Amino acid sequence: MHNGFQAKADTALAAEIRGVSFTYPGSEQPVLNEASLTIEKGSFTAIIGGNGCGKSTLCKLFNGLIPHYYSGDFAGEVVINGVSAQGKSVAALSRMVGYVYQDFDNQLVRPTVLDEACFAPLNYGLADYRERAQRALDLCGLAPLQHRYIWELSGGQKHLLALAGALPLEPDLLIVDEPVSQLDPSHARQVYEVLRQLNRDHGKTIIVIEHHTEFIADYCGDVCLMEQGRVLWKLPAGEALNRRHDLERLGIQPPEVTQAAARLRAMLEEGDAAHTHTHADAGYPITTGDAVKYFTGLLREHGGAGRDSKFAIQEAVSKPAGTIKAHGLAEQSKADGLPEQPQTVAQTIIRFNQTSLSYRTIRKTEHTVLHGIDLAIAEGERIALVGNNGAGKSSLLKLIAGIAKPSAGAVAVLGQDTRSTPIEQLSRQVAFVFQNPEDMFIEDNVRKEIAYCLKRRKYPDADTRVVHMLRSFRLEELQDRDARLLSGGQQRRVSLAIGAAVRPAVMLLDEPTANLDLATREELLSTLAELEQHVRTVIIATHDMQLVSRWATRVIVMHEGAVLADGTAADIFASPDLIRRAGLALTQSMELSDALGLRPACSSPAELAGRLYQSITGKETLAHAARPQLV
Predict the structure, then answer these.
(1) CATH number of the domain that 36 lies in?
(2) Which residues, in sequence order, are CB contacts of 32 under 8 Å at separation 6+?
(3) How far apart, in Å, are the Cα atoms of 68 and each of 36, 73, 85, 166, 457?
(4) What is the distance between the alpha carbons of residues 458 and 502, in angstroms, rounded to a whole number?
(5) Is 78 a domain residue?
(6) 3-state secondary structure string, 63-102?
(7) Are 27 and 141 contained in the same domain?
(8) Which of 184, 247, 362, 615 has its CA 20 to 30 A from that of 55?
(9) Cα(222)–Cα(219) distance, rounded to whole angstroms?
(10) Cβ-contact 234, 64 below 8 angstroms
(11) What proportions of the chain, in percent to the nearest 5, are helix, strand and coil?
(12) Domain containing residue 543
């Protein structure tokens, strides 16, 4: 443990955890095992680790939820602002510690956005509760929505509201569990900018539990790594994200630019001992800005730059004859260099025909969430459905699954009109894995959850499938646990196992990689590949641009309830205006490619390293080192 802890309370510390162990009821293994950690006042710390390592449990110590609310075997001591938390109520600690939970939906208790923001200060009897609430909503960009009902918000908007609800009490320590897991990239940046402002301008101590190391690199000062209930180390972000052995061993992906730099160095050293890395002692870059300087210096050092203002690595690649279709934005597409092209379609198994979806609000007004959708989805396609929060992605999936019925137009799935086909019949061929995993849980343990649908439909190989799913999603040790009591990442794995078990013809996944560590994400992709013999088409609604670039054969961009564009990932990411309008963001590999003049942009750290290696050495890339990982 690098930071250690002191025997006496240190008032320069926001919090201390001293040798804490905790075991949940019904479990033989402690989720925290003599964990110790110090958090300095005014710091911005990320807590990372694989799913189930104890991150969320550790953070529940700070506001007293453990041991005062969650029962179990507890030992050790927690100190907040120099005062022992022992004997302090959750209510008392909540004045000092704000918390945005992973299951933030359960944190929202009032009917409207403004009511929710007012709830905490009003309950503490603060006379200026409304002013505090308004400041919090302004900070989170929710002021225009203050009179909206909670159930009218998208998942991402609810997450922002949960953050706004924690701010009016002005806590010294703010904990956010998975701040970007259900947000589009632009709103994710907004959340982190709010947290940065609170940290820098207001001196708040910020703790985030985070899987996305690119956000950690850009915003956090310290990183704490956990494994099996222990804190392995706490280090400055630059040093922490260069501990690649520790990170990758625990299923945590270093920033893409860090991976690319490390891979390039290995290739140079293996290909030619003379091309060693002179910058290695300072560590690899972790942000895109640092990576531009790093690779610029490296290319100049090895003669990779010298023609014009861009590097010799820039390739004059003409854009293929329009592979993007822009719906309702023909003029904008031409301006972006995105000409239309009819798509080659195999057997169509899902068709939207001028489909709209509306519902009547509590105010008796009609609210339209999807407008005149025309889409043909073919067998064998791997489709990523992307767009900002509230764009209509989840609503589109619900129409395919028959959970929602069109208000106008029609949806046909495998030749069946969803308006007249019972949802029970559709569900035999269409599996929907929900955005909130707990919405799928009805039994009292994981094994029964996976087996439920298989048993009800009397699949002859139900037991074999259950065993296979438990193994595929690393759930064997959790099979007797109640899924509702698992961590967010573990719950996600259970929901994926439930959906995959029935081997549907069409699989719909709503934000499947949210809350997942790298190892589980790889298992998800591997499982999808394995199921291709059974699943004819997979559609994933996601904000995970790495998943999009690696997995999707087709990307459908949605905005304000309409299809904005439809094409390959490369073409979508090649249009800056489209990316901006849709609330998307380039991956680090793509950003760095653009900065270095690489055309077309690289989709992975492996491809980026390979292209740079070829520029520096003039040699073909080493096949085993430069080939992007296949799934």
Answers:
(1) 3.40.50.300
(2) 20, 21, 22, 54, 57, 58, 229
(3) 19, 11, 10, 20, 43
(4) 11
(5) yes
(6) CCHHHHCCCCEEEEEEEECCEECCCCCHHHHHCCEEEECC
(7) yes
(8) 184
(9) 10
(10) no
(11) 40, 20, 40
(12) 330-340+381-406+416-588
For residues 423 and 565, membership in a common domain is answered with yes
Residues 467 and 612 in one domain: no
**CA pair distance 172, 206, nearest whole angstrom:** 9
Confirm if 511 and 541 have CB atoms less than 8 A apart.
yes
Residue written as tokens 């929060």? 389
CA angle 215, 217, 219 (to 5 degrees): 65
In a domain, 373, yes or no: no
For the record, the structure tokens of 439 come out as 């919405």
Q: Are residues 387 and 281 in the same domain?
A: no
Kindly report the pTM of this predicted structure.
0.78
From 219, 249, 279, give the residue that closes a domain. 249
Lowest mean pLDDT among 15-19, 51-55, 330-334, 568-572: 330-334
Tokens standing for 447?
A: 């094994």
Count: domains in the chain: 3
The token pair that represents 488 in the structure block = 């967010």
Co-location of 478 and 561 in the same domain: yes
What are the pLDDT digits (tens) for 500-549?
888 888 999 988 887 676 667 777 777 777 667 678 899 999 888 878 88
Residue found under tokens 């998800």: 524
Helix (H) or strand (E) holding 165: helix 155-166
Alpha helix (H) residue ranges in 462-585: 462-472, 488-501, 518-530, 545-551, 569-573, 576-582
The first and second tokens of residue 390, run together, are: 């509230």
